[in-house]
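User: Show me an example of a complex going from sequences to structure tokens.

Assistant: Sure. Here are the input components:
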Amino acid sequence: DAKTTQPPSMDCAEGRAANLPCNHSTISGNEYVYWYRQIHSQGPQYIIHGLKNNETNEMASLIITEDRKSSTLILPHATLRDTAVYYCIVRVSGTASKLTFGTGTRLQVTL
Amino acid sequence: EAEVAQSPRYKITEKSQAVAFWCDPISGHATLYWYRQILGQGPELLVQFQDESVVDDSQLPKDRFSAERLKGVDSTLKIQPAELGDSAMYLCASSRTGYGGTEAFFGQGTRLTVV
């Protein structure tokens, strides 16, 4: 699976959009981009995933560049409850595919 | 909303004792994963099941760890004997399939402390 690079930490003011970047320059054409988050002492929570096109759900938007070498997770109106570690994961599309976690980005939402 | 259930939530055990964790995946999910998360690090896959078959256990320390999913539904992860370095969060996840385009959902984990 391709490796990902994320900033170790970011801050965001409550009510503002949080834009979390991820670099995956070695991604292959059959690999998905997944985002999970983990609030302290809880299990990881699925947020969103995509292959080529931008995706949006009730939690967030995923913007994937045209060359697919990077992506951005957007939380449109961050709240204090969005404070967590956010993991960007590249996952091959074949069967028996696993999620390989890195160290993620620690997002701190402040008043 | 369906959830992955894990028990116990917390476990304290002495070094050299045996310990077991239980996971009940979301109904209908064929793929089940066990992960270990050491404090400050991301989760690491220990074992992956497709129905009752192991499809990946390359990172499972097989001299002391074992995992089973006998009827392709719930699963048990066992450590015997436990070592101090096994202190970690043990996470279970499930997905409808092991295909790369499907979502995997995690339980709340079991926090193990070995003393």
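The lines above are the inputs; the final block is the predicted structure for all two components together. DSSP finds no helices and eleven strands in chain B.
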